[in-house]
Design a protein that fits this description.
It is found in: Cell membrane. Its main location: membrane. Keywords: Cell membrane, Membrane, Transmembrane, Transmembrane helix. Belongs to the DoxX family. The two termini are about 15 Å apart. This protein has helices spanning about 15-40, 45-55, 60-75, 80-100, 115-130, 135-140, and strands at about 1-5, 10-15. It is built from six helices and two strands, in the order E-E-H-H-H-H-H-H. It is elongated and about 55 Å long. The chain has a two-stranded antiparallel sheet. Strand 1 and strand 2 (about 10-15) form a beta hairpin. It is mainly alpha-helical. The chain has one domain. About 25% of the residues are buried.
């Protein structure tokens, strides 16, 4: 158990708290990286075109970018971690099903398989079960 300074008292930080912190900051950073990829490399319009080529409405690309950007920031801050983790599940399930499903299981396959987004979806479920953990806005609201 590690003690963490708080504005009003010292609170205990456990290994699961640290695990939740590591997981949420890592996933938050990855969501920001994926949003940035869609904005700076593929462009929002290009991403919308790709979504349309998959048979999805183009507007879903813009919603996905917003979800990745806002969700990534919320995870890093530990803001409503459980709800944000669950809310981001459709992004990963959609990526696994529509974006990578036809490429098979392994992400090393041409077109990237569905193993990576499926694993990431499971990690979001784990994050929802763990909560925000140490140094999160969620935890500050409780204490």
């Amino acid at each position: 158990m590690i003690l963490s300074p708080s504005s009003s008292a010292r609170i205990a930080v456990t290994h699961p708290d640290l695990a939740a912190l590591l997981l949420r900051v890592t996933m938050g950073g990855l969501f920001l990286a994926h949003a940035w990829l869609k904005i700076a490399v593929f462009t929002p319009a290009g991403t919308a075109g790709y979504f349309t080529s998959l048979g999805l409405p183009g507007i879903l690309a813009y919603l996905t970018i917003a979800a990745e950007l806002l969700g990534g920031l919320a995870l890093i801050a530990g803001f409503r971690t459980r709800a944000v983790s669950i809310a981001l599940l459709p992004v990963l399930i959609g990526a696994a099903w529509f974006g990578h499903g036809s490429a098979g299981f392994f992400f090393s396959n041409e077109g990237g398989g569905w193993e990576y987004p499926a694993f990431w979806a499971v990690a979001l479920i784990v994050q929802a079960l763990l909560g925000g953990g140490a140094w999160s806005l969620d935890r500050r609201a409780v204490h």
